[in-house]
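I hope you will forgive my troubling you with a question about protein structure. The record follows directly beneath this note:
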Amino acid sequence: MKKLFATATPHYAWIQASYWMAYCILFSFSSLYLLDRGLTNGEIGLLLGLAGALASLLQPWVGARGDRLRRLSLGQFAGALVAAMGLCAVGLLLFPGKGAQAGLYLGLLVLLHLLAPLLYALGMDCVNNQVPLNFGLSRGMGGMSFALVSGLCGWVTALAGPGVIPVLLLLAGGMLGVGAATFRRGGPVGRNLPKAPPPPADRRPFLKKYPQCRPLLAGAVLVCTSHNVLASFCLQIVQPLGGGSGEMGWVLTLQGIMDIPAMVLFALLLRRARARVWVRLAGVSFFLHALLSWAAPNLPFLYAVQVFEMTGYAVYAVASVYLVNDLVDLCDRVQGQTYFNMANTLGIVASSFAGGFLLDLAGPQAALALAALTGAGGMGLLWVCLGRRAEVAEPQHG
């Protein structure tokens, strides 16, 4: 325990836990809150999709600013975005009109999307400067906090009503803002380490400088689309098998449980093989998860299929961060995390629009077919792009 607290891990785990608390409150309870504020289901879906689209447009710009900070540290820059979220949350309490509520909630969603790659880059800054940090354990704490807060928020909103959600968000945001703004690569452990020198500045746009990332990003969009169809339409998936909201809760709980071991133990996996190997294997698991969910004849079979969450999303969520860190120069690593997070966001947008359309048009089986097809396409791209013979060239750092 003493050795653990001599690293950056506890502080960074606090940041990850706070972020995923805020994410749970804002996204998982969005329908509950916005329906209470007078929005329809269609308007909520449009708002969520618009937030993802706007975040995707803004993420490259935010990533470029993050790589060229002069007066602020990366943690302080992230803290400034959290402060903007706090203002939006206060606005939700002060301005009850439907239009104001929708606009402020949209701002919160966009800002939270923009924060994720900055926080990942913050962790990788420790790794690049030899500061002891167990990134997988920290990310696992984020998954655990998500699971715990989802139950807590359900209990609190049942007692106090949906109007308490902005207050809960302010509490989680306060923890996140303080944690990010005070992060110094592990305090005494990392304060005196020299920062690794970046290579000469190259002003080319990111995708021109790293053309090998284009097919990888396409693969990331596809596997994230596949994953989010299963996550976003879980209720509709269990209903034809005889399930309801209770069974949906069991599926989501199993997914959360499966996430934690792989994330917490990822440091051990990384000792056995490089991140690109684990991203390839995660691509296979994304496909199998979707294919077997599509083929599920009953609820017990569907429950069993959730084991692929452990080798799919859980591994991918950590391995992809390390992969980006390997692929790009030090001066571009915030942008690298941003572009891959943008791919995840586009997957959410694509699954929301295409999955919802197919559900209305042809039912859950059509949406599951979309998940299987996009999972297959993403698996193929990741497998080929990261294969031994087609290995992505990795730049020399420093």
Notes: The chain has a mean pLDDT of 81. The chain is about 75% helix and 0% strand.
